[in-house]
Design a protein that fits this description.
The protein is an alpha+beta fold.
Length: about 1250
């Protein structure tokens, strides 16, 4: 510190400090300092917002040096608001006023979600907890909820913790799922988990490779270690060009010659390693990628650590350095040459110890900020000799360190007699610590499987603690972010303040005039550089910057800003190649160096998932039985209480026995197929033993020993042996496999060692299960009911009948209840059609339904960001993919430019779909216009359109199969674009269609024409066509349902019937209401259509799904009613009941329950008011049968040899096939395909 002789100030000096941002509803602190007043003063400080004036301090009769810090309640706001802090000082001869602004933010809560594990199998229960804290890490009571496949509303937390679970369907799709929660302030938090069919890994591999290799290095050491979850053993490693075994510690290393690589420049090494378990052949791949400049031609790095970027003359400047580099510092401004400097303690300050901070001072004032608020303040009095220069040191002590974590922002300032202020600030990192001090520890770090143990938990009295213990293998398979003090503190809305928010920034204009702008320097002819004179002002470090650097607003009349000096400054700008002025070309930064015998049959992946209350003692013992898994259990806990939140350091328990057997099983197998069962025996006893391994017989499978295998062998200490059988399961479901390994007495030698027979621990029996799935092809059998109620209850029934050739025991059945007709389609946006993304036709069939679903949800006010984002993702992907099937003339075909020409139907389909999607994603209008122009070229002289090009799958275009229907389809597509009926191209087509309609008695054509003329606004034609349809023999009325068939077709064609009926529904809803054709008439069509939906919300084929969803979305929007409450009871044939409730809050919730019976009559009873959609679905597997009519005309199959490259391979086979219709003529279908998926175990 240095204080020089000063001239006394002739006026009163004041300073008012407050943080630049505050949180509404919190308590903040404002400090007022009046230095040596020259007369009696009074001061008033007020806070003003748009609708509030709050007096923070009103103090009169200030005669002596005055310093006071006042807490005040920050006004509650719902959006960010700017408030002004007004300071008024009044005396007989003094009148001072000053205003500064601060930002008030709405309060934010800390939300996080923890699940009992990060990955699940289909059919397992998802257990999760939502935690809500305020910014002080105290429990916050609120109402979070999640939605989609599960939904919880108005759930109150228990001391800030909400404990929930959701059972996944055994048929749940594999992939990533998201739990989303909102609080009462609409803050959102998400947590992702994965559904996958998996087998846990038994071991992990780690690669040790230098993080940096320089051009001076010739050789580096690669070290690979592999270990089981709880012990080491020998493995075989396969790396690039290097093969080696591990030693008994599980590690192996090799020296790598790096001179064969060019490392004269900067880049990264990638090390790939495949680890194979000796005996079983099981392997995992571990990849290590250095993210910190793995090799570089530069090898000098300099770190200046925490050296301040300003210096005070006459005070010691400590520089931490390594080797050589440059570091620029600027002088600190003081007109009296008086300075103050804080020095930073190395490392992090430890909590629960008093810390002394050394500094030089003169009448010091201390302010300490933490998490954006003032946490401590105070003053010390120090005498100085005015006749001499004063230097020295003083210490302050920081207390209550836990409340300061993760950073203490310390500001020290003083006001000199001349009115000048001197100050300094330092950000001190504090050891991460949470207010609820916790510990978690097992009574013993190791235990035998099945042994009793206890988990000792300590926390603040009255805490509620969430305790979890998970198999370490799960974390190897799917790592997750660790919950610890650092991660919790990282969620804080403010950890450290720096600068001012932009909306309360104190902007100052550049005080220096521009002499005619930027002037180029005259002499630059021979230089590659350009020189400019740029007027600027020198703004040295000053007290104002000290306060701004820690986010404190200061209102004062003291000298806190350095004077501004204008000067011309010559800037060198490089025109060509840049110059490395700072560090090495690799970009190495300061952080480059930077955590009694029994069967073993209980193998949970999550062992402990408990909510434990802690009593007044602050201590609890949790007694548990160790599961049968040989593994390491990773345990953790967090607690909430009135004291606050806490996280316990992780603790482990290793479950281990010195002699055991481990089975290697696939996740699932197909009944009747075989797989290899491998049993590996591990011996950690001190001597060699003779081991006999047996596989228990079971009626659920047959087993054959492998050829040449011996099931009694020597296993010496720290060795393993693997035994194998060929197993063929014969029963469905989980099949138990029991293997016993035991030491037997023998006189044989194991090598040169005598076999021992241990007194204890000489046997191990393990039982594990393998999932056996049925053979066959999945088929869905569904029965739907759309129930609409006014006042009285309604009862009905549905029957499920399985196909005659289904695989016995394979059928699974479910009942689904939705409060919205579109609910099932919404849940299965990506699975409406069981078809992979493929050619240009298939892509569009997935593209179009998203448009209708978005239109429906938007029109009914039900469109959530989650659904919108999912649908937009599909649309954007589909749009980009479809453009790859575009021809240069603007048309589209199944395979794009590889085909001879575009297809008229597909081009019209693409055109109208792109037009509908344009509202939600970017669609280039040129693509729509070019498609329209190309279709115009296909228009014939009579106005109808010619059929051009081939379709890859003829079923996609539905009933559009002749000139009239194709023309009607194209005309409807043009009208859906918004083109008027008077447009020459449309008018000409409508004339052709009107002329053709006189001789048409086809139901499909009439239905399509009714929709086309409805869009054209021709009400007379619309009336005539709908009346014809209502009088057709093809109209079928079944109960309350209504649909149309093809009168001339003896066989039912469900997809065409759906498409026709959907077109009629669109005709009814797309124009003004006609007498006799109102919503009641339309409801009959909807009732029948809803019965035709499959388990995914789609229909029997492709085009009927597109048209039907368009019609259903239009009807649902027209009849939508946000109110309503319905309870539904489903009774199975055996009398078991399933209850459902539908209301305005869960109408889009997909409610599904698995049924115990797959066939029979199910009774439905609904009570309340509104509409509800009920679907009962069975999913049997059909047998593969090759039939023949007689021995001379056998319908032979075909065969093809395939090489499978992955665990599941799907193969598309292109076929030509003949379909025998109801008439004698035969129809040849070309270019069709089938797909088969082959699973590898």
């Amino acid at each position: 510190m240095q204080v020089s002789e000063c001239v006394l100030s002739s006026f009163s000096i004041y300073l008012v400090t407050v943080t630049s941002q505050a949180v509404g509803g919190n308590t903040e602190t404002l400090c007022v300092h009046v230095h040596e007043p020259k007369e009696t003063l009074s001061i008033v400080v007020t806070l003003r917002t748009n609708n509030l004036d709050l007096t923070i301090l009103q103090q009169g009769f200030i005669k002596n040096d005055f310093y006071k810090c006042v807490p005040f309640k920050v006004p509650v706001v719902t959006v960010e608001s700017v408030a002004s802090v007004n300071v008024a000082i009044q005396g007989a001869e003094t009148s001072l006023k000053k205003t500064t602004q601060i930002l008030i933010k709405p309060p934010q809560n800390l939300l996080f979600i923890q699940s009992d594990k990060p990955i699940y199998k289909p059919g397992q229960t998802i257990k999760f907890r939502i935690v809500s804290l305020d910014s002080g890490l105290l429990p916050h009571n609120q109402d979070p909820y999640s939605n989609r496949i599960g939904q919880w509303l108005n759930q109150a937390t228990r001391i800030g913790i909400l404990d929930l679970s959701h059972s996944m369907s055994p048929e749940a799709a594999q992939g990533f799922y998201t739990i989303t929660a909102w609080d009462d302030k609409n803050q959102q938090i998400s947590h992702t988990f994965e559904i996958k069919e998996y087998v846990l890994p038994k071991y992990e591999a780690n690669i040790d490779f230098p993080s940096v290799v320089t051009s001076q290095d010739n050789k580096v050491t690669l070290k690979v270690c592999a270990k089981y979850d709880s012990f080491f053993f020998s493995f075989f490693f396969l790396t690039n060009n290097v093969n080696f075994f591990t030693d008994t510690t599980g590690c192996g290393s090799r020296v790598i010659d790096v001179t064969e690589f060019d490392i004269s420049f900067s880049g990264y090494f990638t090390v790939d390693c495949v680890v194979e378990e000796t005996g079983t052949g099981e392997s995992i791949k571990q990849t290590s990628v250095s993210t910190s400049a793995a090799f570089t031609g530069r090898y000098v790095y300099v770190n200046f650590g925490d050296t301040p970027n300003s210096y005070r003359p006459a005070l010691l400047l400590i520089i931490e350095r390594m080797l050589q580099n440059s570091f620029y510092v600027r002088p600190f401004h003081s007109k009296s040459k008086s300075f103050l400097m804080l020095t930073k303690t190395p490392g992090k300050l430890t909590v629960y110890a008093l810390h002394k901070l050394s500094h030089s001072n003169y009448l010091p004032t201390l302010q300490v900020l933490s998490r954006g608020s003032m946490a401590q303040n105070g003053r010390l009095s120090v005498s100085v000799n005015a006749a001499q220069e004063n230097k020295g040191e003083l210490t302050f002590t920081l207390k209550t360190m836990a409340s300061l974590t993760p950073y203490a922002q310390v500001v020290v300032y003083t006001v000199l007699p001349n009115g000048e202020a001197v100050a300094d600030s330092v950000n001190f990192p504090i050891e991460e610590c949470l207010p609820n001090k916790m510990s978690l520890k097992f009574s013993s770090p190791t235990a035998l499987p099945g042994e009793r143990t206890s988990l000792n938990l300590k926390a603040s009295p009255g805490s509620l603690c969430s305790v979890r213990a998970i198999d370490q293998s799960v974390l190897l398979l799917r790592p997750e972010a660790e919950l610890d003090a650092a991660s919790v503190l990282g969620m804080l809305p403010v950890q450290i303040l720096s600068g001012y928010p932009h909306n309360v920034e104190e902007w100052e204009p550049n005080p220096c005039p521009y002499p005619g702008g930027i002037i180029p320097f005259a002499e630059r002819a021979r230089s590659k550089r350009s020189r400019f004179y740029y007027p600027h002002y020198v703004n040295n470090n000053d007290v104002y910057k000290i306060f701004k650097g820690v986010g404190i607003k200061i209102a004062t009349n003291s000298d806190v800003k350095a004077p501004l000096v204008c000067d011309d400054y010559e800037i060198m700008l490089m025109r060509e190649r840049g110059v490395d002025l700072v560090g090495p070309e690799t970009g190495l930064g300061p952080n480059w160096e930077k955590r009694t015998q029994k069967i073993r049959k209980f193998f949970p992946e999550t062992w402990i998932w408990d909510l434990i209350p802690v009593g007044i003692s602050g201590y609890v013992d949790i007694a548990k039985t160790v599961p049968d898994t040989i593994t390491k259990w990773a345990a953790g806990a967090f607690c909430t209480s009135h004291v606050g939140f806490g996280v316990a350091p992780k603790t482990d328990l290793t479950a281990f026995k010195p002699f055991f057997v481990s089975l290697t099983l696939p996740y699932s197998v197909i009944r009747g197929e075989t797989f290899t069962l491998k049993a590996t025996v591990f011996n950690y006893l001190p001597k060699c033993i003779m081991v006999k391994v047996t596989l228990a017989d079971s009626p659920e499978f047959t087993a054959q020993p492998c050829r040449g295998c011996t099931y009694t062998q020597c296993v010496c200490s720290e060795e393993s042996k693997t035994f194998q059988w060929t197993v063929a399961p014969s029963e469905l479901g989980k099949v138990n496999i029991i293997v016993r390994a035991g030491a037997v007495q023998s006189r044989e030698l194991c090598g040169s060692e005598v076999v021992t027979w241990p007194d204890k621990g000489r046997t191990d029996t393990v039982m594990q299960s393998v999932l056996v799935e049925a053979e066959g092809t999945k088929q869905s059998v569904t029965q739907n009911e759309l129930i609409c109620l006014t006042d009285r209850p309604q009862e009905t029934s549905v029957s499920l009948t399985l196909p005659k050739v289904f695989v016995k025991g394979s059928a699974k059945s479910f009942v689904t209840v939705l409060g919205d007709l579109m609910g099932r389609a919404l849940k299965n946006i990506g699975d409406l059609l069981a078809m992979p993304y493929g050619c240009g036709e298939q892509n569009m069939v997935r593209f179009a339904p998203n448009i209708y679903i978005l239109q429906y949800l938007e029109s009914t006010g039900q469109l959530t960001p989650e659904i919108k984002n999912q649908a937009i993702t599909f649309l954007e992907s589909g749009y980009q993919r479809q453009l790859t099937y575009k021809h240069d003339d603007g048309s589209y075909s199944a395979f794009g430019r590889t085909g001879p020409s575009g297809n008229t139907w597909l081009t019209a389909f693409v055109m109208k779909s792109f037009s509908g999607a344009k509202k939600y994603i970017f669609i280039d209008q040129a693509n729509i216009d070019q498609a329209k122009d190309w279709l115009g070229l296909q228009q014939q002289s009579n106005g109808c359109f010619a059929s051009v090009g081939k379709l890859f799958n003829n079923m996609l275009k539905g009933g559009v199969n002749d000139e009239v229907t194709l023309s009607a389809y194209i005309t409807a597509a043009l009208l859906e674009l918004g083109i008027q009926a008077t447009d020459p191209m449309v008018a000409k087509s409508l004339a052709c269609l009107k002329e053709s309609s006189r001789n048409i008695d086809n139901t499909y054509v009439t239905a399509l024409l009714s929709y086309t003329f409805t869009l054209a606004g021709d009400q007379q034609m619309r009336q005539n066509l709908l009346s014809n349809l209502d009088n057709f023999l093809a109209l079928v009325i079944s109960g309350v349902g209504r649909y149309w068939t093809l009168a001339d077709n003896a066989q039912p064609m469900g997809s065409v019937e759906v498409e026709m009926s959907a077109y009629v529904l669109l005709a009814l809803l797309s124009g003004p209401s006609l007498p006799g054709f109102g919503l009641n008439y339309a409801a009959g069509i909807v009732h029948w259509l809803s019965k035709q939906q499959n388990a995914y919300g789609g229909f029997s084929s492709t085009q009927d799904t597109v048209v039907a969803l368009q019609a259903l979305a239009k009807y649902s929007a027209a009849t939508y009613n946000a109110e309503g409450f319905i309870s539904v009871t489903v009774t199975s044939p055996s009398g078991q009941r399933y209850q459902f409730t539908v209301n305005r809050n869960n109408r889009l919730l997909y409610q599904e329950k698995q049924l115990q019976e797959a066939t029979g009559t199910f009774k439905l009873r609904a009570e309340g008011k509104g509409c509800v959609f009920v679907q009962v679905c069975a999913l049997p597997l059909l047998m593969h049968i090759l039939s023949s009519r007689n021995s001379s005309s056998r319908n032979e199959g075909f065969h093809h040899v395939l090489t499978l490259m992955s665990v599941q391979t799907c193969v598309i086979l292109f076929l030509q096939w003949i379909r025998e219709g109801s008439h004698k003529d035969l129809e040849l279908h070309k270019d069709e395909y089938c797909m088969m998926c082959i699973k590898v175990i």
